[in-house]
């Protein structure tokens, strides 16, 4: 019973709090700057997109939005631009990891070491199943209830490089989001003295915010995902399983949609 309670109401881990007022101010400034150029800005843009969708005469479920879209007319140029988009995602995650390292926080301390590669992959597969299957059901329910747009994970043409680009983009998404929103963000909030519960909710709401363009279902579903992933990290202190799980979920969504779109009638 005590272990269950620790998962639900975990104690604040020691050794993280920063007491120096100047350093705390710099951490706050750093958080604003980092998220103003990465996922925080994406959250604001996503909110504007949702407001725009709500102001239209059509219901949300009569509208659609695509995640991975063509970025150039010429096929090879499109491939290059898709890979550049993925590179930006990898750079975002690397920025979070680098700033933690510069602050004297070993990456192993946030679970980014390679000591448990096999176990991290297995746990990641389990987390992907735990989140991915119910997540698909929740998306279909949200769409049926009219609170979500029809989401097309990919509208890329049937080109030889499409699966490659989608897999790389999925891994980039996973790396950027889990490093920034979980490992980096919650660590910085710990240093500022926030409780584990408040840090968890802040991380989860941030994750949901940049999915608002999909509708209320996309927001709520990703908040739940953020609560599960964030709490797992707080208790297990392993970040790689989250990266693996997120990558698998996105790979199945991106590549699977490309293969099934038009072939089944249950996908919006």
UniProtKB/TrEMBL annotation:
Alphabetic keyword roster: Hydrolase, Membrane, Protease, Transmembrane, Transmembrane helix
A biological process term (GO) from this entry: proteolysis
Transmembrane regions: 31-51, 79-100, 121-144, 210-233, 239-260
Pfam families referenced in this protein's UniProt entry, alphabetically: Rce1-like (PF02517)
InterPro entries xrefs: Rce1/LyrA-like_dom (IPR003675)
Ranges of residues in domain CAAX prenyl protease 2/Lysostaphin resistance protein A-like: 160-251
Residues spanning the signal sequence: none
Keyword Transmembrane: yes
Keyword Transmembrane helix: yes
Domain of life according to the entry: Bacteria
A single GO molecular function term of this UniProt record: endopeptidase activity
Protein name as annotated: CAAX protease family protein
């Amino acid at each position: 019973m005590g272990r269950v309670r620790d998962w639900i109401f975990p104690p604040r881990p020691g050794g993280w709090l920063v007491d120096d007022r100047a350093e705390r101010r710099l951490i706050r400034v750093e958080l604003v700057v980092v998220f103003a150029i990465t996922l925080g800005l994406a959250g604001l843009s996503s909110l504007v997109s949702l407001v725009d969708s709500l102001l239209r005469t059509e219901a949300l479920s009569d509208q659609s939005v695509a995640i991975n879209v063509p970025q150039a007319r010429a096929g090879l140029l499109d491939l290059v631009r898709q890979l550049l988009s993925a590179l930006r995602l990898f750079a975002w995650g690397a920025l979070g990891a680098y700033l933690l390292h510069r602050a004297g926080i070993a990456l192993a301390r946030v679970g980014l070491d390679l000591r448990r590669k096999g176990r991290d992959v297995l746990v990641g597969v389990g987390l992907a199943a735990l989140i991915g299957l119910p997540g698909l059901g929740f998306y279909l329910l949200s769409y049926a209830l009219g609170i979500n747009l029809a989401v097309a994970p990919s509208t890329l043409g049937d080109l030889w490089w499409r699966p490659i680009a989608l897999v790389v983009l999925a891994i980039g998404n996973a790396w950027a989001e889990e490093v920034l929103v979980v490992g980096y963000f919650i660590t910085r909030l710990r240093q500022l003295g926030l409780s584990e519960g408040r840090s968890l909710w802040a991380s989860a709401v941030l994750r949901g915010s940049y999915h608002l363009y999909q509708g209320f279902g996309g927001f709520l579903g990703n908040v739940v995902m953020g609560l599960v992933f964030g709490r797992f990290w707080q208790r297990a202190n392993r970040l790689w399983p989250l990266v693996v799980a997120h990558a698998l979920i996105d790979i199945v969504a991106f590549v699977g949609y490309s293969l099934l779109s038009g072939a089944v009638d249950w996908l919006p």
